[in-house]
Amino acid sequence: MRREIFRMDRASAAALLARAPVVHLASTTPEGEPVLRVVHGVVVGDHLLFHGAPVGEKMDVVGRRAVISAEEVVASIPSYFVDPDRACPATTLYRSAQVHGTIERIEAPHRKAEMLAALMKKYQPEGGYAPIDAEHPLYKKAVAGVLVLGVSLERLDGKAKLGQNRTPAEVGRLLDLLWARGAPGDAAAIELVRASNPSAALLSFLEGPADATLVCAMGEADADAATALLNGTYWCKGTTAEHIRRSLLGSSAWVGARDRSGAVVGTARAIADGARHAWMYDVIVHDAWRGRGLGRALMRLLLDHPAVRSAETVLLRTRDAMGFYEPFGFRTRSVQRTEGPEIHEMILVRTGARGEPVCPLASARKGT
């Protein structure tokens, strides 16, 4: 790799290959003709494996050198983020992984069955089929007949081009512009770039109380901890932990906070249509953090999230936190009277919501 600052650690490279919807296989035939195929690959142990019929082009590459690669676009960076006139600074933030090796034919029935089981788990995670076993009457013949090929992960390399070659001030400006643009995936891109550039300049939209780090795009790794925070709250009563988890991951916007140890200490989410309406849910901070301004910081961040900021109305429901939400402009619209405490439906009506696409950004065009 030409620039070591972009090198991805081995575990991250393997994880990228494992989650990629497809991988690209490049090799040659015995006659030296190039072969380029897209295959459904799975990582099983120390190999990347794929399957096919025991005839055709794939058979020609058995025992030959090959490269298997996968990539993810993190964000496209327009030229005017950097320069108001020149086109040259346009670039792409991305992650990629490559494995170099010799294509092996997997013969052992149990290994072939293991590969097919991993393939089904990846592409049909909901199940709905009998577990795959090499001796199962449903699969014995299929396992024997399928071609399974693989490449050892011994020569695995990964690249993450996420702004590591920029100064902390430049990275900070880039993240501010990504947040202002707010295209799909920009919030997640911000978190990836932050993780690769810990010395980046402080971002004003992520300011919060000392010892807490605000996160503008929570993810799979945070889901269990956030679910634990919400489990047992009155508004999640009767909801299973799995449904809480799925609601977090399915939200239009999901922000949160971590303490210095990395533990999740706050979470808030919203469902939004991207233009007119948004509903806020599950705003909560850990007991130890209450009264320290973390909840207010989460609210500011969520209201300014690209998925929420353009909404003309934002709604939520609460039975006891009206005073917390009112300083943000929320007012009680209706009261639902039940056998228990009253539930207040609150609404924030915003004029001049930023609903127009921001491209190019005025600040970037001015070079600010």
From TrEMBL:
Any GO MF annotation of the entry: acyltransferase activity
Domain of life: Bacteria
Transferase recorded as keyword: yes
SUPFAM superfamilies cross-referenced by the UniProt entry: Acyl-CoA N-acyltransferases (Nat) (SSF55729), FMN-binding split barrel (SSF50475)
EC number: 2.3.1.-
Domain N-acetyltransferase: 213-351
Keywords: Acyltransferase, Transferase
CDD domains in UniProt: NAT_SF
Pfam families recorded: Acetyltransf_7, Pyridox_ox_2
PROSITE patterns, per the entry: GNAT (PS51186)
InterPro entries for the chain: Acetyltransferase_Butenolide, Acyl_CoA_acyltransferase, GNAT_dom, Pyridox_Oxase-rel, Split_barrel_FMN-bd
Name of this protein: GNAT family N-acetyltransferase
